[in-house]
Specification:
Length: about 110
């Protein structure tokens, strides 16, 4: 069983933090997280590599409660994917397209 430490408790992929009477959430990674994902040079279709970035960006977007946490997570994801051989332009283009698609979906759904 997890125990609260420093007003924070991890739950699945979420770090929940208490601020007075409110809760804030952001992406949680265990201390053993290595940052290893599918290498860009691997023999997989490009849509699979794009999907990994989009999925992790969607997770960060849906979990975070503050905009600054999303910016930190996007920067972290960018660093992780660069270390896995992904071109910087590919990462940015994928994240920007993902944001545009979410804006369109949010506009269409009442």
């Amino acid at each position: 069983m997890e125990v609260e430490q420093n007003k924070c408790i991890p739950f699945l992929d979420v770090l929940v933090t208490r601020y007075h009477e409110k809760l804030a959430t952001r992406v949680y990674r265990k201390s053993t997280h290595t940052g290893r994902y599918l290498r860009f040079e691997s023999n997989h279709p490009i849509h699979i590599k794009r999907g990994i970035i989009s999925t992790l960006h969607n997770r960060a977007t849906s979990i975070r409660s503050k905009e600054s946490d999303l910016q930190d997570e996007v920067q972290s994801l960018t660093n992780i994917f660069v270390s896995n051989g992904y071109p910087y332009k590919f990462i940015n283009r994928t994240i920007n397209n993902n944001r545009k698609n979410k804006d369109i979906i949010n506009f269409l759904v009442p």
